[in-house]
Every structure is written in C-alpha cells, then in structure tokens.
Design a protein that fits this description.
Butyryl-CoA Dehydrogenase, subunit A, domain 3; 4-stranded mixed sheet; globular; fatty-acyl-CoA binding; Butyryl-CoA Dehydrogenase, subunit A, domain 2; 12 strands; AcylCoA_DH/ox_N_sf; alpha+beta; Acyl-CoA_Oxase/DH_mid-dom_sf; 11 helices
C-alpha cells in the first residue's frame, strides 16, 4: 500500500489567507470587499501619507459623495436610500477602508453607525425621510455628539442640557472629540432633559451652534475632529428623537459603531503585517533576506496568527449580527481583542522595518498612531474589560464604591 502526501489534493497554502476565511464569503460579499479595496487604492492610498503629514483630510465632502455613490454610508441600514447590506458586508467595507487609513473608516462609521443609525432606529418618520436619503448619498455629512470635555467613559455625567421654551427646545453645552464635526450638516446631540437623556437632530446652521476644529493631533491626522459648542441653540419641538429616552439610545449606537471597529482594526493590522512581510522578503542583512532569520519568522508567524484570528472573530460576530443574535458583551469582546492585537501587530511590524518603520514611506507608524485613538474611542480598553468582567462574574465594578 503506497503512502501519499498528507497534503495531496488540498488547496495550496495562501499567505494572505492562511485559514481560508475567504471561503466563508459569498459572491456579493466578495464584490463589496473588492469594490471598497479598489476605491481605497485609487482615492486614498496615493495621497494619505501627505494628508497625514499635513494633518488634514482635503476634499472630505467629495469623498463622502463618492462613498455614498458606492453605497458605503449607512450601508447596513434598510430603506431611505440605504444599501441594506449585510453586517458582514459592512464589516468587510470597514476593514478595507481602515487598511487605507483609520480616519477614512471613521468618516464612514460616524456617518452610518452613529448619526444615521440613531435617526434610523430612534427617529420619527419625518426625520428619517428628511435626513437619511441625503446622508446615504453623502450630500449631507453627519456627526454624533456624546463625549464631553469632562465626561468620556461616563456619559451619565454629561452636562449638556436641553430645556423647554414654549414649544421649542433650547440646547446648551459642549461636546469634544467629534469626528466630522466641522464639516457636518447635521449633528445628533445627546443632552440631559427633565425626562432623562434625549437625542436631538441639530442642523449645524442653527444659530448658537459652532464646531471649531481640533488641531495638533498626533493620531487620526487625516480626519476631521472637532469640538461642538451649543449656546442656547433653539430647536423646534420635533427635533427630539422620539424613540430614545435615557442612555439606552446612545449606548446602542456605540455598540453598532464598535462592531465596525472590530473589522476596521484588522484592516490597519493587515496593512502593517503585509508591509512587514514584503520588507522581510526583500531587505537583506548578513547576506540574505531578513525573512530568512528565525527571529523574524517567529515575529511574522505570531503576527499572522493574531491577525487572522481577529478576522475570523470579526466574521463570527458579523454572522451573529446578521442573525440578530449579537449581544453588546460580544461586541466588547471583539473590540477589546482586535484593537489591542492590531496595535501589537503594528508595533511588531515596526521592528521588522527597523528605522524605515517610522517613515511615512511605509504605512506602519501611521496605522500604529491611528490605532491609539481607536483604542480609546467607542469605549476604552478598561471599559470593555469591565463590561466583560460584569458579564463573567455577575458583579458590576464600574464604580469603586
């Protein structure tokens, strides 16, 4: 009896997809992925190092309209001009956009998963019809005002408030670290009221509203980040989101946005890993490519394991979301793991590139610094650890008393 090779008849090993995760994708999934990858390669990658160095995202409104034409804005929402894509397809789009730059993915996430999602889930029919089609097309950019200068991880302590003045609302307060703020045409702002926390749809042309851009960032430099200042902004009575009362509203929006980060962070990790792998194959030291040394291969192997475990986790969570079975604690699991591992991958990739790793000629340091923001926003590492800790033990530890 002859003995044949144990790999006889098996597909070849693919260094770009060592677990064969692509086999989980159907033709529509692949079409979304390839479309977003091609757009990012054409419209972002040739320019993003310069944008990052200059600390700006020029032509953001044009980019938004192009992304709208691709169906990328609010793509997992249905109706009102939205694409109605699956959660997995939305995740694939986030991965490809963040493989180009976290700032571009943030533009899409804030537009769709925060501002549009809030209106789609909690808004009136009139609010949905007025805003969602224009936001889906990229004609109107949205932002999401929850974080405040003194209240990030503890939104229950927010100071922004809205009070009744006849039939109108008067909205006063400040929001901080708001992506898209100074280019937005509409802001979804959360504020205290006599009835609890409520969400408001605020046209940014309203008297008393301003959005000064935040400068001097060392992360997410190719992204618009602003403060929102609301000085007795007068809004009509129907500006409030009718279906959201209490923190349940904004927190559910954050959970939707965190899901996109689970995927997006793996895009940044993939781009950094691929840069390191290519460099290891071509950079020669001591008479041979550095990829031929055991220590370098150990680094690449560990990076590949964490990268593709993270992608597989993202797929699993996406399938659960499509089945309406995804719990917030599971989203916290994904964000905690994938962002933390993505940063570790970027840092290891930097060591393989040596001094070249700090150069904008390569994407690694740009991704590493961007991920420092991704690690913090939509819930810090510590907050997600506490979410999981409570789920595991049944004991809340958010407060020390």
């Amino acid at each position: 009896m002859s003995r044949t090779s144990g790999t006889s008849g098996l597909p070849p090993f693919d260094p770009t997809d060592p677990l064969g995760v692509e086999e989980l994708l159907d033709p529509e999934d692949l079409a979304v992925r390839d479309t977003m990858r091609a757009w990012a390669a054409d419209r972002v990658l040739p320019h993003v190092a310069e944008w990052y160095e200059r600390g700006e995202l020029p032509g953001v409104r044009e980019l938004a309209r192009e992304l709208g034409a691709l169906g990328a804005l609010g793509m997992s929402l249905s109706g009102y001009g939205c694409a109605g894509a699956s959660a997995v397809q939305y995740g694939l789009a986030c991965l490809e956009l963040e493989a180009a730059d976290s700032g571009v993915r943030s533009l899409v996430s804030v537009q769709g998963s925060l501002a549009m999602y809030a209106i789609h889930r909690f808004g009136s029919e009139e609010q949905k019809r007025e805003w969602l089609p224009r936001m889906a097309s990229g004609e109107v950019i949205g932002c999401f005002g929850l974080t405040e200068p003194d209240h990030g991880s503890d939104p229950a302590g927010m100071r922004t408030y809205a009070r009744r003045d006849g039939e109108d609302w008067l909205l006063t307060g400040r929001k901080m670290w708001i992506t898209n703020g100074s280019v937005a045409g509409i802001a979804v702002v959360w504020a205290r009221t006599e009835d609890g926390v409520r969400g408001f749809v605020v046209p940014t042309s309203s008297a008393g509203f301003s959005a000064p851009e935040i400068k001097h960032k060392w992360s997410l430099r190719a992204s618009v980040t602003s403060e929102l200042v609301l000085d007795e902004v007068r809004l009509p009575g129907d500006a409030v989101l009718p279906e959201a009362v209490g923190l349940r509203g904004p927190l559910s929006c954050l959970s939707h946005a965190r899901y996109g980060i689970v995927w997006g962070s793996m895009g940044a990790a993939r781009a950094s890993f691929e840069a390191a792998l290519d460099y290891a194959r071509t950079r020669e030291q001591f008479g041979k490519p550095i990829g031929g040394f055991q220590l370098t291969q150990a680094k690449l192997a560990d990076m590949a394991v964490e990268l593709h475990k993270g992608i597989l986790l993202a797929h699993h969570l996406g399938r659960r979301m499509d089945q309406r079975r995804l719990r917030p604690e599971q989203v916290s699991f994904g964000k905690l793991n994938n962002v933390r591992e993505a940063i570790a991958i970027c840092r290891e990739a930097r060591t393989i590139l040596g001094a070249n790793g700090i150069s904008l000629d390569y994407p690694v340091m740009r991704h590493a610094t961007n991920l420092e923001s991704v690690l913090t926003y939509e819930g810090t590492t510590e907050m997600h650890q506490l979410v999981l800790g409570k789920a595991l033990t049944g004991i809340e530890a958010f407060r020390g008393d």
